[in-house]
Design a protein that fits this description.
The chain is of the alpha/beta class. Among the domains are: 87 residues, Chorismate Mutase Domain, subunit A (Up-down Bundle), CATH 1.20.59; 88 residues, D-Maltodextrin-Binding Protein, domain 2; 77 residues, Periplasmic binding protein-like II (D-Maltodextrin-Binding Protein, domain 2, 3-Layer(aba) Sandwich). It is 43% helix and 24% strand. The strands form two sheets. Strands 1, 2, 3, 4, 5, 11, 12, 13, 14 and 15 form a ten-stranded mixed beta sheet that branches. Strand 3 and strand 4 form a beta hairpin. The longest helix is centred in the N-terminal third of the chain and has 36 residues. It starts with a helix and ends with a strand. The mean pLDDT is 87.
């Protein structure tokens, strides 16, 4: 038999497989409907396990492993189908439908919480998003979350990640502890300057102060500077303000150029970051979900079951529904052994059917599920 005839026969088999698959999905949907009427649990792990064992026993020994992978995937799709049928009126769908009704433009003026003091990079991000903002400054990132949670401020500005230094781990841990929604995000170009008190000379500097992220972003410059003590502090602008009041001529700070004028410091070296392509992504958070025109990105946080294939199952859902994922971040869950929280950014039209389907499935299949908002990024 030549290759063309073999291909024809394979096409015929594929058509049969397709028909059988569609019939199986119809059955899964009907089972989901009946289970909902009878208030029965959707999952039937015992039946699936026995079926998988039976099929692997019947399969040719060389194909048993592949049969397990194939039918495990089919079972997973069937479960998703049944759960979506049973829970399509989920809290997430209601949340998204309610948020989709907001048609007003993003507010230009608002009360906003920022970490640090005047001159902080969070303030620069805030100034890009609002015109103007009534800013309240706080000493810590957690205080910003608390200010939004208590409605002291309508919005909060938080740095999430940097293009060269990576994620702000403290922020990801706080995201797991507070209820909030992302309503905007912005990528801000960051240039760092070495600042010191007037009269200081670079050869006399013995200690450098700055935030952990700024220190990491300027690691090459600092490594070339032997014998200098590096001290982390809460914020780059706060470091500049403290340096101005300390009067020390043997200490310097890594901060923005604007802080030199704000706090009466002099610049000892400009553009000391590792790369000129240095961006920090800031998110704007609110207490309630607010979706504005132009929103195209959705963020989620999930705690997955500690078993093989749990992450693959989530990624497969995005792929099956044609949803592009552009960020995946994991953080350990405090107090639990080897349990992780996963943060996802996905690109999808606002309130699309594909997004609703995926969220309905994920809400039912994960240990913990948080919808963090649908928003526009600048």
């Amino acid at each position: 038999m030549d290759i063309d005839k073999l291909n024809e026969e394979m096409d015929s088999v594929d058509d049969q497989l397709l028909n059988l698959f569609e019939r199986r999905m119809e059955l899964a949907q009907e089972i989901g409907r009946q289970k909902k009427e009878l208030s029965l649990p959707v999952a039937d792990s015992e039946h699936e396990r026995k079926t998988l064992y039976r099929l692997c026993e019947k399969a040719h020994p060389e194909l048993a492993g592949y049969v397990k992978v194939l039918f495990s995937s089919i079972f997973e799709i069937g479960r998703s189908r049944r759960k979506a049928q049973s829970h399509y009126d989920s809290a997430v769908k209601k949340l998204l439908d309610a948020a989709a009704g907001q048609n007003e433009a993003f507010p230009l003026r608002a009360t906003v919480a920022c970490q640090g003091v005047e001159g902080a990079y969070s303030q620069a991000a805030c100034d890009k998003l609002f015109s103007p903002a009534d800013i309240t400054y706080f000493n810590s990132f957690e205080s910003v979350f608390q200010a939004v949670d208590s409605s002291l401020c309508r919005f909060g500005i938080i740095p999430l990640e940097n293009s060269s230094a990576g994620s702000v781990n403290e922020v990801y841990d706080l995201m797991n502890r507070y209820r909030f929604y992302i309503v905007r995000s912005i990528k801000l170009p960051i240039t760092h300057t070495l600042l010191a008190a007037p009269g200081a000379k670079i050869d006399d500097i013995k200690e450098v102060f700055s935030h952990e992220q700024a220190i990491r972003q300027c690691s090459r410059f600092l490594k070339s500077w032997n014998g200098v003590k590096i001290t982390e502090c809460a914020n780059t602008a706060m470091a500049a303000k403290q340096a101005a009041s300390s009067g020390r001529t043997d200490a310097a700070v890594i901060s923005s150029r604007d802080c030199a004028e704000l706090y009466g410091l002099q610049a000892l070296s400009f553009n000391i970051q590792n790369t000129d392509n240095n961006y920090t992504r800031f998110i704007c958070i609110s207490k309630k979900p607010e979706i504005y025109p132009g929103s195209h990105k959705t963020s989620l946080m999930l705690a997955l079951k500690h078993k093989p294939g749990s992450l693959y199952s989530v990624l497969a859902k995005f792929y099956a529904h044609g949803i592009n994922m552009n960020k995946l971040e994991s953080r350990p869950i405090s107090g639990q052994n080897f349990e992780f929280m996963f943060y996802f950014d996905i690109d999808t039209p606002v309130i699309s059917d594909e997004l609703k389907q995926v969220l309905a499935e994920l809400e039912q299949e994960t240990d913990m599920f948080d919808y963090l908002g649908t928003y526009q990024e600048f």
